Fold this sequence. Notes:
The structure is a single chain. The strands form 5 sheets. Strands 5-4-3-1-2-7-6-8-11-14 form a 10-stranded mixed β-sheet, with helices on both faces. Helix content is 35%, strand content 23%. The chain is of the alpha+beta class. The protein folds into 2 domains: 5-288, no CATH class; 345-395 and 424-592, no CATH class.
Amino acid sequence: MKYNDKTFYKEVNGYIEKLKGKVENKVTLIILDIKNKKAFYSLAPLSRAIHELNGDIHVVVKGSKNHNLEVLKDVWYVYRDLVKKLKTRKVEALLRFIRSVNKRVGNRRFKEIFKKPDIVLIAEKEHFSGTIDLKYKYKWHRRYRWNELLGTAKRIWRDGYALKKGEKVSIGFVLMPAKKNMELPLEDYLDSYSIALAMGTAAKKFKAKVSLGTSTCRFSQLAKAVRTADLMATLRGCELDKEVDEEVFKRFKEFSKLLKIDRLEASDAAFGIHGKGYFGKHFFGENIGYPSLDKKTRWSSPGQLMLKDPYSPQTRFESRDPMMRYAITETLPIDIFIETCNIDYNKLRKKSDKVRNIFNKCEWIRVVGKQVDGYKTDFKVGLVKEDGERKYFISSDCDVRSKVDQEYFKRTGIKAGSYANFPSGEAFVTPTRVEGTMVGDVVINIDQSYVIPPGKPIVVGFDRKKGYKIIKAPAKIREEMKKQLDEGREKIRNYEEHKSLPKEVIEIYKKNFRKVGEFAVNTNPKAKLCDYLIVNEKIAKMIHVALGLGFEPERKTVYHWDIVVNSPKQKLDIYGIDKKHKIHWVIKKGNLVV
């Protein structure tokens, strides 16, 4: 381990001793400047300590004056006055807004999100001040391959995003979970702090306006989000929808005008680092939703509305253009992040394009290998529906150079948003049907990445009408699958009960709940086997198949499980068949032949 874990745990325990009895079941807001590295690296032991004490955290890392934070503070002050029963125009406007939401949803829980944080920590030069005075504890950190990491981040911003001067950039990172929720390696979580800071530092080199932020993760999709983060999401979504002809948005518009909530700034480009867990249940989104201005459709979060991705059924009804472009990674080790992301993206796009172009000539795809652990991968992937409609491969998983997905726009005339992965490298499609059996033997991503143990593969059976069935899987993975499926059904029931999504969208979610959403060939020659799906699903020669959500508007649902198959190990043959029955090879005996 490159870091001193003894020092890290000592710093965690130091914070626990200082905070015990003060942060339990409370929200701590931490504010710091991106230039304050001591404060930033102190977030790792500090967040671990607060989570061990069952507290919540919301972090704002600002590069300059943060208008979003100023709006939050103003809203908290008005709610404080409401609790004091003061009579002001702002209080009355907020009360009307809250009452309109209560009436709509049939309960009075909405007001909870307006409470200010219980504890505020503000980073000074050498310590956190505010509600509690805390020394920085950052000695656990050791600088490692910083210049290469910074170079990698610059390359992502330049070649992946085409980042421009003056653009607003937001970077999401992960806080350290409590020990009981720590299923990913400690070192990888700690590495993610350097990656987040490198991405922020590199973006500033392009003269972008940079901020970082995060909040405590939830380990159930149905758990409430951190209330301060939930409030920010609500304000952002309602500000976008304040012209909608519905009572709740009319009342919000009155409140917004008095507080000048239009000061809220949205990101032009966003980058997210993901670990284990979820944002949590967004109250307003799941109970009311965010309609298009003409009310032809509805979104369950402002992030979905702002991204407006090509795969959402709402996108074709939403008249507003995409407002940001977005890409994600996981809590990768620094070495892997550098090796897989500091590459020639033009060459990678061309490699993926070649696979895409071959398969786009075909009617269906054959995948067959040798027997492994008593099972054999042997399945067919359909690319053309019975009515003749073709499903096309996509190869632009490293391209967020424009807010509008240019390839999708050329094909459909619809302005949808750009979304990518780093590392990148795949050509993928949403199949019309899949038949046969697959042996997944590398990794699966559910609420986090899970390595599939040697000799204990995930065996999936595919039926063209019934979708998929898990024939065999390790007990832990089966348990997580069941949990997410149960929570997914509950989310759909909530959308249905509250009518927060259009009936047509809910029916799409239901229809695709047990379908196969993706077939992909991986193309990144620098990606190597590790613990993380986002890397393994890019390893050249390998393939992956996803259960659940697909990348077509009519194939959306509430989960997406990628399962990676080791083509070289299973000696897979993969080829397409065109309408003249001509064979087009892509992989022979586990090796790319494109």
